[in-house]
Write a structure and sequence with these properties.
- It is a single chain.
- This protein has 107 residues and is an alpha/beta fold.
- Helix content is 37%, strand content 18%.
- A four-stranded parallel sheet has the order 3-2-1-4, covered by helices on one side.
- Strand 1, helix 1 and strand 2 form a beta-alpha-beta unit.
- The termini are far apart.
């Protein structure tokens, strides 16, 4: 049986993806591979400074990456509503949603 790898991702030109938790770990790697395959990627990050740093690292690997950072704190419903409203106004169609981030260890 053949193993799947990022090389198996098809051309995603013209597709828009939202990746939560895209500033590090699996979320960042996912965003990187999506832009490598032509997707427009919206990197949803809780911390704007960390998001900007991760976008810089992504563009260092893929200089022509079509990617942006938007603030999204999943523990704050106001942040979620603001993110959703702003996203729908700017990008009414989303082709791929990667729900990588989450809230854990809530009191």
């Amino acid at each position: 049986m053949a193993r799947w790898s990022a090389d198996d991702i098809p051309d995603l030109t013209g597709r828009t993806a939202v990746v939560t938790g895209a500033n590090s770990g699996l979320g960042w790697q996912t965003a990187l591979e999506l832009v490598r395959h032509g997707a427009t990627v919206i990197m949803a990050c809780r911390d704007g400074e960390k998001g900007a740093d991760s976008l810089g690292r992504l563009r260092a690997d893929v200089p022509d990456a079509d990617a942006t950072v938007r603030i999204l704190d999943l523990a704050d419903l106001t942040s979620v509503q603001t993110f959703a409203d702003d996203l729908m106004a700017a990008q009414p169609e989303i082709d791929v949603l990667v729900n990588n981030a989450g809230v854990m260890a809530v009191p």
